[in-house]
Design goal:
mainly alpha; 78 residues
Length: 78
Amino acid sequence: MSEWLNPTVLAWVYSLGLLIIGFVLILMEIFVIPGMNIFGILGFGTVCIGVGFAYNKVGTEAAVLIGMLGLVGTAALV
């Protein structure tokens, strides 16, 4: 259990969690509440914050991977 409390692991969890929340918000914009634009903007912002958090906390190589996941995921949703 203590390996989950490692700051590097928590940074990965937070970064991926922000990506997932962003993707869910974008999906809500597309399928549940189309035309409002607020959920799409918040989702895109959350994905960007997740990538930025990864750059600050995890490191460049891992953050590039998370950024690529963000780009591919956003492109797949749109």
